[in-house]
Design brief:
mainly alpha; two-stranded antiparallel ribbon; 17 helices; 6 strands
């Protein structure tokens, strides 16, 4: 490990200089020989490095999402050339070149901070062995050796012997308890960060070997941290625990505000955005406008959560525009063109008539026939005046007939009676 750390000795002087500058600030507050002064100096170094690496982190997110988008195409290539590994690799590289993606971009933050990590390890190892490194002179070296974090010296390791720990002014039990707790926290934070990525910020519609590899790394990385952590000085454990916590918080922020399309995090985000837009009638934040603009531009390629968001706006009388804004529509008419792009019009979208059952069609036909018969009867009743007395007489005759029939005895057959035949005498 010392050989690997010495390869990054070119950056040891800048790292030691930054630590000394932070130590001069915190030393004036907590005391120059305290663990708080040296521990906070290491934490501040991590924060400074991670702020500088934010552009690489953004590039990592874009690269990871681009890789997720390419998973269906990659799966097709793997199935097509499963018996020809060389052709499979060539097609993969061709796909990366055409889409402008790079699989190594997801590792940029880790690779970029590796020199700082090994330089810090080299500095702390020099403190443990009593060697001055970089801008850390003899007086600063003695001050760092006196610094303890919760009873553990800054340069002590879990695997150190009792005599070496006693030379640093501490007990072996304190060192192992503190380092064990820090290793567990470091592994747990790494596991939670990877698990959060896999369960919330991954497109659930894509099932590829790449996802299985990411799931495997969720368990492999914490184990690696636990194995290598017992050989790290306490100061390096502080550094690595701080960077893990920073990564976890940074990822939580990204998942909450800019989730991966098709993920559970996007469903939760669009639900919050829909509630905000329907309450205020507009999109307030700039990043929300960017998201809405991207959803509108997708057209028919929208996923389930994005379609639900657009339909929810339409039901609320709102329409998303191509510039990411939302406007009100009195008729709530959002007509979707053939390419799936929503456009606001003055008239609502024409609905197809609902198909009727056979019984409904027969009932409607009977009703139409009845209305037609009534119209015909009304037309006949509007004839010449000389026809009215006859009609009235006919009506009166009908009434008298009906009266006669009503007076018929019970049991007598209604209607005109057939004359009886004469009886034979």
């Amino acid at each position: 490990m010392d050989t690997i750390a010495s390869l990054f000795s070119f950056i040891t002087t800048p790292v030691s200089w930054v630590i000394v500058q932070f130590h001069s600030v915190y030393g004036a507050i907590f005391g120059p020989d305290t663990g708080w002064a040296w521990g906070l100096s290491i934490v501040s170094l991590v924060i400074l490095i991670r702020i500088c690496l934010i552009p690489l982190f953004v590039k990592q997110i874009k690269s990871t999402r681009a890789m997720q988008t390419l998973q269906p195409e990659m799966k097709k290539i793997q199935e097509r050339y499963k018996n020809d590994k060389q052709r499979q690799s060539e097609e993969m590289m061709k796909l990366y070149k055409e889409t402008g993606t790079n699989p190594l971009s997801s590792c940029l933050p880790i690779l970029a901070q590796s020199p700082f990590f090994f330089a810090l390890y080299h500095v702390l190892n020099g403190i443990a062995t009593g060697d001055t490194i970089g801008v850390i002179n003899k007086s600063l070296l003695e001050s760092a050796q006196k610094a303890h974090i919760f009873g553990a010296p800054l340069a002590a390791k879990f695997t150190d012997s009792a005599s070496k720990v006693e030379a640093l002014g501490a007990s072996l039990t304190d060192v192992r308890v503190v380092t064990a707790i820090m290793i567990v926290l470091m592994s747990a934070s790494q596991f939670f960060t990877q698990r959060q990525l896999m369960t919330k910020n991954v497109d659930t519609t894509v099932k590829t070997p790449f996802m299985q590899q990411q799931k495997m790394l969720m368990y492999v990385f914490p184990v690696m941290f636990a194995v290598f952590g017992i050989n790290f000085p306490v100061g390096v454990l502080v550094y690595w625990l701080t960077t893990n916590v920073w990564t976890m918080g940074q990822q939580m922020y990204v998942i909450h505000n800019n989730p991966t399309p098709g993920s559970k995090a996007q469903a939760a985000y669009l639900e919050r955005l829909h509630k905000h837009v329907t309450t205020n009638g507009k999109v307030s934040r700039r990043r929300d406008k960017v998201i809405v603009k991207a959803i509108v531009a997708k057209g028919r390629d929208r996923n389930e959560f994005e379609r639900k968001f657009v339909n929810g706006l339409s039901k609320a009388g709102l329409a998303a525009q191509t510039d990411g804004t939302v406007i009100k529509s009195d008729t709530a008419a959002v007509v979707e063109a053939e390419d799936g792009t929503p456009t606001t019009t003055g008239t609502p979208k024409r609905q197809q008539p609902k198909r009727q059952t056979k019984a409904q069609r027969q009932s409607a036909a009977a009703k139409a026939a009845e209305e037609s018969e009534q119209k015909t009867s009304l037309t006949k009743s509007d004839g010449p005046e000389d026809a009215k007395p006859a009609a009235a007489a006919k009506k009166g005759g009908a009434k008298s007939g009906s009266g006669t029939r009503s007076k018929a005895q019970s049991g007598q057959r209604k209607g005109p009676q057939r004359p009886k035949s004469p009886s034979k005498k």
